[in-house]
Specification:
alpha/beta; 13 helices; 14 strands; 391 residues; 5-stranded parallel sheet; disordered N terminus; single chain; 7-stranded mixed sheet; 44% helix; 18% strand
């Protein structure tokens, strides 16, 4: 309850601060000095989920390097202005305010997590500065609670409802399981949203949720709750969450004797998952994702080649969506021909069949890309392409 009140308080303060700067996005002079266009890069560079923010930001940097090497946008180079939200929603709102009012950016790319994007939303909306959320999957990111599309918020990845349905379909149709237990993060909208959609889809497909327990972000000991879930004799365990907790949960689940398949979401996607959980514990685990390095699509493979050349490491789904989101922003800037936020937002909303690393990028009426999804299986600590699924 204290965590919930803190989050609500932070969002309220963000909204108050945002209202003080309404209309400030109309002043374009500092956004474009004639030679370059300022673009904000607002990410979780430190804090609990810094791995996500850093990875996504690298994808952004690669895209900007390539765009600038080809002459930039209408002859002008993109200048990235970095901001760290420290993996905290309250800091995200403050950082967005600084990027807009002090740094005078024309558009913001990031943050990575849904909570931090939500905290920045009142700021960018009131300032009329578009925000591209590369990997924020919560359904409320681009549409408000009344179903109205948020005019300045756009997305480069699939949504939580999509991947929740995806995993439920995989569980019932590929793994042929019916009775599933769920262990979710009650402090995370991401985890709660996935749990809700997965549960409904599972039951619609003839399955049943036989047990449900909750944990909190930054918890360390999960054995008591896992032992309770074990008594329900599940055929699979669904754990939608982020790698820091999930890796410990998987390790401890195996230690208490849970041997069934463990299913999850794109928040699992991190090299640290295997480092913490251990390769053996991860055998028989699967998670939804939008990218696999084993995808033979030539655009995917070219992205991997370019990314490895720049950073000397394998890219993950966060990196490729950071790249795709930046390419979409660049196209919108090109089509708008201005740093006026309203015109950039209008151009973003009209993007159709833009070739990006993951395929053809087209936005639907709710500012979400039309996309598919894949299932990743962990084998001996390594990600392997399992199956591509469409709904």
């Amino acid at each position: 309850m204290k965590a919930w009140k803190k989050a609500v308080g932070a969002l309220a303060m963000t909204t108050l601060v945002a209202s003080m700067f309404t209309g400030c996005g109309k002043k374009d002079a500092a956004k474009d000095n004639g030679n370059e266009i300022k673009v904000g890069a607002l990410f979780e560079l430190t804090g609990n989920v810094a791995n996500y923010g850093k990875s996504t930001y690298k994808g952004v940097q690669l895209a900007v390097d390539q765009i600038n090497a080809k002459g930039g946008i209408n002859g002008k180079k993109i200048k990235l202005v970095e901001a760290d939200n420290k993996s905290e929603p309250s800091e995200s709102g403050n950082a967005a305010t600084k990027l807009i009012t002090k740094d005078k950016v024309a558009v913001i790319i990031g943050p990575a997590t849904s909570g931090c994007v939500s905290a920045a939303t009142p700021v960018v909306t009131n300032s009329k500065v578009p925000l591209m959320a590369p990997v924020a999957t919560a359904p409320g990111i681009t549409v408000d609670e009344k179903g109205k599309v948020r005019p300045y918020i756009f997305r480069a990845c699939f949504t939580d409802p999509f991947q929740g349905k995806l995993m439920a379909k995989f569980a019932t149709e590929t793994l042929k399981v019916k009775n599933v237990a769920i262990f979710y993060d009650s402090s995370s909208d991401y985890s709660k949203g996935l749990t809700d959609v997965f549960s409904k889809t599972l039951e619609a497909n003839g399955g049943k949720v036989v047990g449900k327990e909750a944990f909190l972000a930054k918890d360390q000991d999960f054995k008591s709750a896992l032992t309770k879930l074990k008594t329900t004799n599940p055929e699979a365990l669904y754990v939608p969450g982020y790698y820091e907790e999930v890796s410990k949960i998987i390790k401890q689940a195996r230690e208490v004797g849970i041997t069934c398949p463990i299913l999850g979401s794109d928040g699992w996607d991190s090299p640290k998952l295997a480092d913490i959980a251990g390769a053996e514990a991860l055998n028989g685990t699967y998670f939804t994702n939008a990218y696999s390095a084993q995808d033979k699509d030539p655009h995917v493979q070219q992205f991997i080649k370019d990314y490895k050349a720049k950073f000397n490491e394998e890219p993950d789904t966060f990196a490729i969506h950071g790249y795709d989101g930046t390419m979409a922003v660049a196209e919108a800037l090109k089509q708008a021909g201005t740093t006026d936020g309203a015109k950039i937002a209008e151009a973003l909303g009209k993007i159709k069949d833009l070739q990006v690393a993951t395929g053809k990028y087209t936005l639907d009426a709710e500012h979400n890309p039309v996309s598919g999804g894949i299932i990743i299986e962990m084998k001996d600590g390594k990600q392997t392409f399992k199956q591509k699924i469409t709904l």
